[in-house]
């Protein structure tokens, strides 16, 4: 731990994303003078390593946030609703990785490559978008800026780690059972709190989060609404179908989009994305170069490939977008927001 | 074997689809008086069971088709190109499951629920469409008939069995290796004859078949071109992104489509598909009822669910289409074509 820097709290430190937050704070060398690790009472007492130091995880309480500069929340929406305002009251800036405040008009929803400026209007809480939204807007923003954007239709291929550590364990255990010819009982996926559970190993499940009244899932509506908010485009047409796959980490997306300018070619889009912040272009069909989740794990960037012009619509294009959902989709985007806050002089 | 019925030949009897053809001929009780099983020289000599009878697989030669009424080909495009016309010359009707003749204007490309009538114009060879195309057009045709169809954008979630028995083995072996923490060397997928091979277990690979010059894969172009041909709609806008998953059998598709009529509602589409030939509607979000590949294996039907109206386009809808790629996508559609030929009196 450094002697200068910030007092950072991580809420939900023992979870799948919390673990990645610790690793990301280490690898990106965020300036930390004190690190407080918090969790529910259930996980309190766990000892976690940070830069070779042992830190005991404490149960989150309102008083836990005394003196904290930046609090990274990732312990579920209910914990955020309970404690985020308590933390703000005590002078912390909260970067919340749950859906609790994302659509609150008072709360900026930020992907630094897209709308870093929105941080300036924060009122103590900043929301980190949904994982599947983040990687898509990082790829779309340079295109919107250069050529305008009218319409997006996305089908996702999402990893189980988005549903937490228990879902990862379920994929492993089921895969084991199926290979050994043993029976098994789905208990977590597709949605922990929902009525029915289905096999995920060697399957594709078209449900992420619960269903809304309109037949879309919450995950699909998150992609639709968050994209419009982050890009400041309430008029943008966005449609989403979200599907869970037997992949541990790494979300993929098949994205169709229509630009506003005419006669744009694939090479124009490639040039933009080759130089875009946070994007690695992997797009060479001749060399079978395209992004894949198994090869994106552990990397911070959003990988884009398979860019093609639609064969019927002059303004239509297709692309394939892959990223580590625990990093750019969660931990890294949160730490990046913290970095932007420091850079913009927004942390006291 | 019955004393009346037809002399049927199965070419490629030892392959993943060939095996399913034998099982389908059994379960659908197709009228067979003689069954000839053929293969390349490599697999000749294998003994296969059909209705408790042992049949020795013979090497395919032009003479093998003497006296054959119906020849079901599924041994790769090269074998079809070599022998289909030889079979026709000897009086057989060929039902070809490869891509060899699909886009030949002289060859009907048939999905019986959609364009059975096209069989009447056959010249000896009938092509069975690509697996991913078949299940999509079965779901789209009732919609087209009732409300017209302008546009289709599909993203696929395809099983490895579409790439043959070696690809199934590769998925199994890799999964084993990864679980045990052992190293492995991808050798088959995504495309056996292509330069590079990638991990398929716990991954998603956006390449099925080789790339064309335009950046689309052959699989994607098959879906685009075959859909137009089967539905007799050269003007239909179709776009496809095809992705291979760690699923053994069962293709899934996220399909966006635009109808021509105005003010159609989800319940209108559901009503149509509830009564459609070859379709099982599984669509009740409240009960988490939707199709999934792991639960569609071994079934003949095309399963449709997740039907939603697009939130921006009055004429736009989304649906999720699943089917057993070895059955309706291959063996069952081929046998169904044979049944239609018999029903229409087209077999001598």
UniProtKB/TrEMBL annotation, chains A, B:
Keywords (A to Z) from UniProt: Amino-acid biosynthesis, Diaminopimelate biosynthesis, Lysine biosynthesis, Methionine biosynthesis, NADP, Oxidoreductase, Threonine biosynthesis
Signal peptide (UniProt feature, chain positions): none
Record-given protein name: Aspartate-semialdehyde dehydrogenase
GO-annotated molecular function: aspartate-semialdehyde dehydrogenase activity; NAD binding; NADP binding; protein dimerization activity
Entries under InterPro entries matching the protein: Asp-semialdehyde_DH_CS (IPR000319), Asp_semialdehyde_DH (IPR012080), Asp_semialdehyde_DH_beta (IPR005986), NAD(P)-bd_dom_sf (IPR036291), Semialdehyde_DH_NAD-bd (IPR000534), Semialdhyde_DH_dimer_dom (IPR012280)
Domain of life of the native organism: Bacteria
Gene: asd
Taxonomic lineage from the root: Bacteria, Bacillati, Bacillota, Bacilli, Bacillales
Subunit structure: Homodimer.
């Amino acid at each position: 731990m450094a002697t200068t820097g910030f007092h950072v709290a991580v809420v939900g430190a023992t979870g799948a994303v919390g673990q990645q937050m610790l690793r990301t704070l280490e690898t990106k060398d965020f300036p930390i003078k004190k690190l407080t690790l918090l969790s529910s009472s259930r996980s309190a007492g766990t000892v976690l390593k940070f830069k070779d130091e042992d830190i005991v995880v404490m149960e989150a309480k309102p008083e836990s946030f005394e003196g904290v500069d930046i609090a990274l929340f990732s312990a579920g929406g209910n914990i955020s609703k309970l404690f985020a305002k308590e933390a703000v009251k005590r002078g912390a800036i909260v970067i919340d990785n749950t859906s609790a405040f994302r659509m609150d008009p008072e709360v900026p929803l930020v992907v630094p490559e897209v709308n870093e400026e929105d941080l300036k209007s924060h009122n103590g809480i900043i929301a980190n978008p949904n994982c599947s939204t983040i990687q898509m807007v990082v790829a779309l923003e340079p295109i919107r800026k250069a050529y305008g954007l009218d319409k997006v239709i996305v089908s996702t291929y999402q990893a189980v780690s988005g549903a937490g550590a228990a879902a990862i364990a379920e994929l492993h255990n089921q895969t084991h059972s199926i290979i050994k010819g043993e029976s098994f009982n789905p208990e977590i996926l597709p949605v922990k709190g929902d009525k029915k559970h289905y096999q995920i190993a060697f399957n594709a499940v078209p449900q992420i989060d619960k269903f809304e009244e309109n037949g879309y899932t919450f995950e699909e509506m998150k992609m639709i609404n968050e994209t419009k908010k982050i890009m400041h485009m309430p008029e943008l047409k966005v449609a989403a179908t979200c599907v869970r796959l037997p992949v541990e980490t790494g979300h993929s997306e098949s994205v169709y989009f229509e630009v506003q300018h005419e006669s744009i070619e694939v090479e124009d889009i490639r040039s933009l994305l080759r130089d875009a912040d946070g994007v690695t272009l992997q797009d060479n069909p001749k060399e079978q170069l395209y992004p894949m989740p198994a090869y994106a794990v552990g990397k911070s960037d959003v990988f884009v490939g398979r860019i093609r012009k639609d064969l019927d619509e002059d303004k239509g294009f297709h692309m394939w977008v892959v990223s580590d959902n625990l990093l750019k989709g969660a931990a890294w985007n949160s730490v990046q927001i913290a970095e932007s806050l420091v850079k913009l002089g927004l942390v006291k």
